[in-house]
Amino acid sequence: MKNDLRDRRQRHDLSQADLAAAVDVTRQTINSIERGRYDPSLELAFDLADHFDCRIGDIFDPNSPPADATG
Amino acid sequence: MSTTQDHPAHRGQRYNRIIMAVFAVGIVSFFAGMLLDQTFVGLVVYAVTCLGGIATLLYLQFASSVQLSDEREQQLHERASGTAIMIATYVGLPVVIGFYLLDTLGYYAIPPVVWGGIYAYSALFLLWGVVYTVVRYNA
Asked: What is the CATH number of domain A5-62?
């Protein structure tokens, strides 16, 4: 699923490891989400939205294909 | 800025890697023991490392607050397990049926070691069925 997580993270001057620590996942998971290769669970999506003080739909594009479909 | 080295997911990932390395040491020791004619020593190292690894995994998973894997890692495990079962089904079943046919038609007598493999193969699916039923019941 397409998302603007990388842009948001960089705007907040966070590394992937910083963001991973903030939402309690591994850095590899953040990297996979940013590359559109992994779609997070609803719980993680809420955590990410909470962290950036926005809504899930602001980060993720619901009209893009899921990660499994894009490979 | 918060520290990135001590949060639970990172710690769990580190523990997981250490335990996998311990398993690898055990397996390599087992084969090295056979190659160097030190089978018993290799077996002892294999047993200690693997049983220790299993005990540590069980402790971390069920009796500690450590999170061994995050959600993406769990999804990868699920996909790998599903793919492994699918391969075992689509490749293994025709092979087993082929053995039965050849044995019944008198072209090939299934030896005990192959029967052992067939029983193990059947037990794998029986185990999968039981686990699936329990998981589905609790879902």
From this structure: 1.10.260.40
